[in-house]
Write a structure and sequence with these properties.
Elements: H1 36-43, H2 52-60, E1 66-70, H3 76-84, E2 92-97, H4 108-111, H5 114-124, E3 131-135, H6 138-142, E4 150-155, H7 161-171, E5 175-184, H8 189-198, E6 203-205, E7 215-219
Parallel strand pairs: 1-2, 1-4, 2-3, 4-5
Antiparallel strand pairs: 5-7, 6-7
Length: 224
């Protein structure tokens, strides 16, 4: 991948610190019961998008036109990449997630209104029209794509070993030769184990060696 070229004065978007939101009061998952302040607060809490430099590199590659992000959460990362590519002709960006169909008890208050928060962020960044949503399980969503039809896929869904393993096996054939398959949170044990088992070699992207921001990636033109 090319050397990073950051725009002068570039500052990654910083989300609010992770907080414990606790069980919601009666009715809080309902859209009508949420104030604009609550929507803004939840849309910017626990976003976990700490790899803007990696997406800048991806955007610099002129041969990347079909993109899939698996596990989009509140849309911070996919909207950022879409914003970088908004003027590229023929760009196709797909977001794969279960949204409210997911179960994540620790963050269930946010999951219960996830599509609201996701669309709020995409509309706020004026990228909603650039992204096609696929609401399904990762492996089932992969079946909607022909083999070797994707230029770049980013895996950031369930971080448990079996789930990551299933995601890699499902999406790897869909990436064309010369394309890139990558994922977030390499420091998670399940992610680390699944990636190391599947790939004999891969690259780590973590400028500044920041905590919890390591991205693993593999260029499919490499020999496994």
């Amino acid at each position: 991948m090319p050397k990073i070229i950051l725009k002068q004065g570039f500052k990654p978007r910083v989300c609010k610190p992770i907080v414990t939101v606790g069980p919601p009061p009666p009715g809080i998952p309902m859209v009508k019961s949420m104030t604009n302040k609550e929507i803004e607060e939840l849309s910017n809490t626990n976003c976990w998008f700490n790899f803007p430099e990696f997406y800048q590199q991806i955007a610099q590659r002129l041969d990347i036109n079909t993109i899939v992000e698996v596990g989009v959460w509140k849309g911070h990362s996919i909207s950022y990449l879409a914003g970088l590519l908004r003027n590229r002709p023929g760009i196709k960006i797909y977001a794969v997630d279960l949204f409210e169909k997911a179960r994540w008890l620790k963050y269930q208050r946010e999951v219960d209104v996830l599509s609201l928060l996701y669309n709020y962020n995409l509309n706020k960044t004026q990228t909603r029209h650039l992204i096609t949503d696929i609401i399904d399980y990762s492996d089932k969503a992969a079946l909607k794509f022909e083999d070797a039809s994707i230029d770049f896929v980013f895996l950031d869904a369930d971080h448990e070993y079996e789930s990551v393993k299933k995601d890699i096996n499902a999406w790897y054939p869909k990436v064309r030769s010369g394309g890139i398959i990558a994922g977030h949170d390499r420091h998670f044990p399940g992610v680390k184990k699944a990636v190391q088992e599947f790939f004999t070699s891969f690259e780590i992207f973590n400028p500044g060696n920041r905590k919890h921001s390591a991205v693993w990636y593999f260029n499919k033109s490499n020999v496994m």
